[in-house]
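pinning this so it doesn't scroll away 📌
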Amino acid sequence: MTSHLKPEAFEPGQIVRKSFGLKGVIQEDLVRDYYSEIVKKIIESGNVYTEKDVTFHLASSFGFCYGVDRAVDLAYETRERFPDKRIFLTAQIIHNPRVNHNLQEMGFYFLENYDEVSREDVVVLPAFGATASQIQTLKEKGCVIVDTICGSVLNVWKRVESYAEEGFTAVIHGKYYHEETQATSSRVLGYSGGRYLVVLNMDETGIVCDYIRRGGDKQAFLKKFEKQVSPGFDPDKDLIRIGVANQTTMLMSESLAIADKLREALVDRYGETHVSEHFGNFDTICSATEDRQNAVVDLLKKKLDLMVVVGGYNSSNTNHLAKMASSYVTSYHIEDKDCILSAGTIRHKPIGRFETVETPNWLPPGPIDIGLTSGASTPNQVLGEVVEKILSFR
């Protein structure tokens, strides 16, 4: 691969956030790797498409969002711009196996040991972000850093940083082990006295609310949340003033409910007239996540026989779409076409499980209406292959 740009000097530790101007050069590769003709046909048919005796109902908002598009584009441009350099990813650029496999085929390496990075290398930060300490280490290494971090994630960072500046503890609705939440929580620690607490769901929020109202066993609280709090966290002091934020891909309705529940606890403790001194909240669910969740709600108003949700098993936003769908209709969360083993058997991930299962008799004979959506990190090509695989059985 040969770069189409003249040599350009980069400062040691420079962070590149903008396109290298190579979108036209990489377009053919992007079409090859991610375009789907049948998905185009479905969209052109008003998101309802019938072939043989199968009618697909595609959600009005699905698949790649702007942030993912930008991350993938910039990764492909980076390979084109630096054809002779080693290029590392600090983590999966997005949570989709096809995309990450493609990048590995293009010569990207996953960074496992920061000691192996030199100033001659290029390191790409994924759409989820990276921790403040990881970014600082890379700057000190002097390598070129390509930043594909989603703008919605950066907005959450600004929010939790403002909480830390004002002396509020950031309560983050998210998964403490998720790259995005780890990156977000790390932003708080750059401020003197910065504190955070990560809650996964309403049950954990209930425990926090009980402590706000009545106090309790501090050591038991810290044991429960030992992996989810900042160093030196003290619930007796650090739950007096809190600000709520969230991992951008969480279930919107749950994030809003968590914020309401925490506010109610503070009102009970300090009174309505003083709650603004103790509580801050700004909705930090990204618009793409919200759009895809709302589209599933609308789609489920139709009479469907089953729903297929396509996306990475470790994709938070895809898992939430599957959870929403499963509340209304038989639903199958699959990663790609290979999960459809036959007309009689499908391999999928049940809600709340990490391992997959195989379910028989999943595709009924005769005319059938199938709801269809995909997570924000799922290429149209993967979705299209699923459609074609289903049609192949008719």
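📌 and the second one:
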Amino acid sequence: MQLRDTLKMAIVGLTTHKVRTILTILGIVIGITAITIVTSLGNSAEGYILGELENFGGNSAFVVPGKEGDFSEGSILTDSLHEDDVEAISKKSNVPDAKEVVPFVFGPATLIFESEDKYVSLLGASPGNKDIENLELSDGVFIEDEDVDQKAAVIVLGSKVKEDLFGQSDALGQKIKIKEKLYRVVGILEPKGQTLFVNYDETAIVPYTTAQQYILGYNYIQRIFVTTDKPENLAGMVLDIERTIRDSHNIDDPDKDDFYVQTAEDAAATFGTITSVLTILLASIAAISLVVGGVGIMNIMLVSVTERTREIGLRKALGGKNKDILLQFLVEAVILTGIGGVLGIIGGSTISFVATKIIHQVSGINFPFSSPLSGAILGVGVSTVIGFIFGIYPARQASKKSPMEALRYE
């Protein structure tokens, strides 16, 4: 029997019981849809993170307190970096390739204006933060060097913070209370939305020295951002920073470092690894539904073999070979799962596309939609293999039936 004839007979067999065919396909559709959603959103998240990190360019590095690889909540409060470290890195004799050294701190705060109050993310910044995050002001000015030196009681508001506290009224020059101390509003940020680290619309910015002494109550630095003129100088600058801080902290053994230096490329690799592992883990969990769908296909195919026993006997009596019968039922199973795979990819991609739009609308994050071709090919391939594996047993049972016994079957 030619393959074309086998395909025709398989399609006729499937369309004879449409409801049963649809219900059988449904298990595969759900499984492939779940896997497609997980891989698509995983790739979208990775693309967003890498895009945000690229904004820092290939000529910058972060100095982070604590041990590298420690992502615990307590690591945020590690107090190993101080003002002395900022000054040491800023000296050309120590780090000659450093162009800009920008320390900052962060934490929660409650802002009060008259009868209004708002809980915000507080960023203790310096003038350099404006450039590294490409911040624009709709009104007023940003934090200046004098403000940092004098621990000035000045504040810059994110667009949403300004709106919530002042509405349409002018905020410049107004006084906001934080922990019983008044701060004068000197600037309003243009709407920027969520970045990788901060939602600037919901953020208030004060000089980092002011934040340390009057608001957050600690004297350590949580991050130091360092840039260089040329990307090719970055590796040398990182080595100079590490040597400088080790000297400052009296550390002889690099294994005992209480800080680490991370470039944008390093951070991208770390985040990429994390998102890839999570994607694989979630996709593996979703794949369990494919096994369930495969078992469902095997059960339905066994029922189909039983119902079509006389048909099998008649075909064998007319000269049909065992391999023809086996191939027909195997093709039916593969067609079922193949169609389920295609529908699952279409459904999963559609849901992922809608989800990225919702994320953008709700959070303001520029979350890119990603539906890789490799994922689609893998989805169809996996579903087809499932159909082949779980279709072999029913197909073999059909091919082994005796034509005489099959013809006598009622």
